[in-house]
Amino acid sequence: AVYPFYAFSKMAVQSEGIIASVPSGNFGNMMGTVIAKQMGLPVKKIICGVNENTEFPDFLKSGQYIVKPSIKSPSSAMIVSHPSNLARLIDFYGGHIYDERDSATGKVTRQGIIDRMPDMDAMRRDIFSAGITNPQHYQTMKSVYDRYGVILDPHGAVGWKTLEDFLEGRHNSDAVVYETADPGKFPDDVKYAIGIVPELPPGMKVQACMAERIYSVETQPVNTAQGLQLSDDQVA
């Protein structure tokens, strides 16, 4: 919830509020922005950009939530077809969603059952959501670099492209795109998109020069009524 407040504090014009475009996988940053709006931050619209795992934008359009197998994507941290924070979002808008579990094993047998619908009209007023195809990740990274000299990582590209789709090319509103990862963490994707290998983030440069330490835990866990747990020897 801090991120949109910080972004708003840095904007030159703050009277009209902002559009927040949030690349979304498990919906943590997006839900934080919903909370910031509820706290009073003037957020005009929350853009929930996803990759080809489009369960949520499909739900906003149809009112039906159908969980499908996850699809691989360049925005690797967002390969999530059933976000855990979706339960918080639906609860926030007055609904309820749960996963059906086997009573004996506790394993999930059916995901995403909505037994009380949220206020869909309110959710649609506050949130716009769309999916970005895998090729569009790279097209957006190249377009932004060619036009502005800015290197995006694949996740930030989802935020940028969904914002452009929402604005329909008008670009007449104050907006912020959450760039949720350093491009240096995705050298292959960035090189594929723009032909340049980005620099590693400073922390990763330091880490790359450090000695690797490997500890082997040989002892076995303890079998308890609640299942396997770490033994005292393992903890030590």
Structural description of this entry:
The strands form 3 sheets. Strands 5-2-1-6 form a 4-stranded parallel beta sheet, with helices on both faces. Strands 3-4 form a two-stranded antiparallel ribbon. The protein is globular, with a radius of gyration of 21 Å. Helix 1 (2-9) packs across helix 2 (28-39) and helix 6 packs across helix 8. The protein is α/β, with parallel strands linked by helices. It has helices at residues 2-9, 28-39, 55-62, 86-92, 120-126, 134-148, 154-167, 187-194, 202-208, 232-235; strands at residues 18-23, 43-50, 96-101, 108-116, 127-131, 175-177, 222-224, 227-229. It is built from 10 helices and 8 strands. The mean pLDDT is 94.
Summarize the biggest pleated sheet. 4 strands, parallel
Counted beta strands: 8
Q: How would you describe the shape? A: globular
Whole-number mean pLDDT:
94
The fraction of residues in strands falls at 15-25%
Radius of gyration: 21 Å
> H/E order of the elements?
HEHEHHEEHEHHEHHEEH
Alpha-beta classification:
alpha/beta
List the keywords.
236 residues; alpha/beta; 4-stranded parallel β-sheet; two-stranded antiparallel ribbon; 10 helices; 8 strands; globular
